């Protein structure tokens, strides 16, 4: 029986291994982590992450050929294939701070593998890493290899949160990079055999190591660039009276452009887009490609611009001050169908409003008060370290309350900001919400989920990203 061990039971390690276990009943899969609470949660009825369809997959396989354990060394030493899916945050100190990937967790995992391995191993990079990481890992593993043969493969993950199970069951492609030696090719085949149990052969792409590593960074950079492009257009739409949804539809009909990923928003979030682009920028700079670095940096600058543009709209529309005013925040997760708040645009928007002394009442169906308070008090990039290394108990911010009911969040509020596109926000009783709010009542839709015209008929003043402006807002221009 092939034995797989995955180091890192997070958003990638957990779902990915669950699907491998589901589709490969003859493979034993053990997911290990240094975080005891995380592993306990994986072994309970309340999984540590919210992902549609995940519970069912885990229920089918757990205890059969899928196991979760904190006994990292035992399972690593017994495995034939070791996936490494640990955090690769942005460095906050020292060389490359604010840009380069922090490979502390990767390096410690590699050193541990070297310490405990007693047989040949295929080590698979599942985390997103800088190009040439495999070379560094190879050095760590082979430096004191005790005659063990290590093959390093790059097998980046392309799943998106909220659709992870569907993405894993039916991926556009699986990418495997390896050495072009006979041993390297043998290792590629071993991993390919695992995926080939359910992924059609033509969707399994094999490349050299550096192409696979770079393809992951490039894919995220291209995706994020698309959002920054449409968000940049949204600003121009507001200035000219064009409607960004109509523009997106019209350009998306061109088969060379395509319709996906063209939704204007308050900005992209998530644990990876910003981190991976910063990493790409750093690699370009290290290779003397400053023009290329500047090009990609602009994607993040436009994203930051979009978030501050939104805050400025809120403040300027409400007579240039939100001091002491209650603002309801609908949605805190970085996108719908996930409880993940890493790098969510809601953090920057809330901080911007708090900076203008607003008092916030936040509702998100999947995010807890503790998480929101942590996010609003954590330093930049701190969120991407293992949970036991994050700041412990944040001092809670008094102007922030978190409620489990959107109607309660909106009661007596002057304005309402929609920051996540949860489907339920489309179905709320906005008449009831309007009645309970202070007047004039404002809605700032950062995701274009509500029907602005209907809300205007109810009496709201509505701002929708990239849409023709409400006459009220036209008179109150917001400069970012
Ligand atoms: N979240 C996502 O949707 C995607 C993430 N990625 C990449 O995958 C990697 C992992 O991301 P996530 O799963 O989101 O992170 P995560 O933070 O959810 O999970 C990482 C886990 O690794 C554990 N860990 C860290 N060092 C360890 C060690 N030495 N031994 C054992 N466990 C250790 C942590 O305790 C944590 O539970 C990152 O490089 C990320 O860029 C790639 C594609 C999608
Ligand atoms: O490397 C990663 O971590 C992953 O990053 C993204 O996945 P994810 O961040 O989970 O979610 P996306 O659906 O890509 O959304 C990212 C952000 O962009 C925003 N977005 C997305 C699409 C769009 O049209 N407009 C828009 O503002 C979302 O609301 C969200 O805040 C990529 O889509 C995955 O392929 C990749 O594996």
Automatic annotation (TrEMBL):
Classification via Pfam families: UDPG_MGDP_dh, UDPG_MGDP_dh_C, UDPG_MGDP_dh_N
Q: Which residues form the active site?
A: 272 (nucleophile)
From the Swiss-Prot or TrEMBL record, what is one GO molecular function term? NAD binding
| Range of residues in the leader sequence | none
Q: Which InterPro entries match?
A: 6-PGluconate_DH-like_C_sf (IPR008927), NAD(P)-bd_dom_sf (IPR036291), UDP-Glc/GDP-Man (IPR017476), UDP-Glc/GDP-Man_DH_C (IPR014027), UDP-Glc/GDP-Man_DH_C_sf (IPR036220), UDP-Glc/GDP-Man_DH_dimer (IPR014026), UDP-Glc/GDP-Man_DH_N (IPR001732), UDPglc_DH_euk (IPR028356)
Q: Which SMART domains match?
A: UDPG_MGDP_dh_C (SM00984)
Pathway involvement of the protein, from the record = Nucleotide-sugar biosynthesis; UDP-alpha-D-glucuronate biosynthesis; UDP-alpha-D-glucuronate from UDP-alpha-D-glucose: step 1/1
Q: Give me the residues that bind NAD(+), please.
A: 8-13, 33, 38, 86-90, 127-128, 161, 272-275, 342
**Is Transport a UniProt keyword of this protein?**
no
Cite the entry's keywords alphabetically: NAD, Oxidoreductase
Q: Which GO terms describe its biological process?
A: glycosaminoglycan biosynthetic process; UDP-glucuronate biosynthetic process
Tell me yes or no: is Zinc-finger among this UniProt entry's keywords: no
Write out the similarity annotation.
Belongs to the UDP-glucose/GDP-mannose dehydrogenase family.
- List the PANTHER family: UDP-GLUCOSE 6-DEHYDROGENASE (PTHR11374:SF3), UDP-GLUCOSE DEHYDROGENASE/UDP-MANNAC DEHYDROGENASE (PTHR11374)
**What is this protein's record name?**
UDP-glucose 6-dehydrogenase
Q: What is the species listed in this Swiss-Prot or TrEMBL entry?
A: Punica granatum (Pomegranate)
